[in-house]
């Protein structure tokens, strides 16, 4: 399923990506270990139980990466030149093991590249919501995309 070229997008266009993803204990454990994030809230059930959350929190950089991963099939596969930046990353609600996350993307800004006439810049707002309808993560992702007509 290819992404879309710069000239196929419109500001305001919104996509709810499928499939959603249920976060497992293994996801959290492996991602935390691979990134050397040994925060007890992510790995130690007893420490997490004693926290205000009462359970293990999923590593927020996993939820960040999951938002990008869930979104790319519909947005940038095969059309991406480069990710230019990630901004305004917020995690208003924690993610817990067993939460099912769904990603929605909205085009919030577009502009022609001044230095690359065959490419354009798109800013996506990605939002992950859990099965309770709560926003687990929101961010802006700025990408450089190929133009179809170039």
TrEMBL record:
CDD domains attached to this UniProt entry: FkbR2 (cd03451)
Pfam families: MaoC_dehydratas
Boundaries of every MaoC-like domain copy: 11-116
Full protein name: MaoC family dehydratase
Lineage start: Bacteria, Pseudomonadati, Pseudomonadota, Alphaproteobacteria, Sphingomonadales
């Amino acid at each position: 399923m290819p992404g879309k070229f710069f000239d196929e997008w419109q500001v305001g266009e919104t996509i709810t990506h499928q499939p959603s993803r249920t976060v497992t204990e293994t996801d959290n454990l492996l991602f935390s270990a691979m990134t050397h994030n040994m925060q007890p809230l992510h790995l130690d059930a007893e420490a997490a139980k004693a926290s205000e959350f009462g359970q293990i929190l999923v590593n927020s950089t996993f939820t960040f990466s999951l938002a990008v991963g869930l979104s790319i099939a519909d947005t940038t596969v095969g059309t991406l030149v480069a990710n230019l930046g990630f901004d305004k990353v917020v995690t208003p609600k924690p993610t817990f093991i067993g939460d099912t996350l769904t990603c929605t993307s909205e085009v919030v800004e577009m502009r022609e590249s001044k230095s690359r006439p065959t490419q354009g810049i798109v800013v996506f707002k990605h939002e992950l919501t859990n099965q309770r309808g709560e926003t687990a993560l929101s961010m802006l992702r700025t990408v450089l995309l190929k133009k179809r007509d170039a």
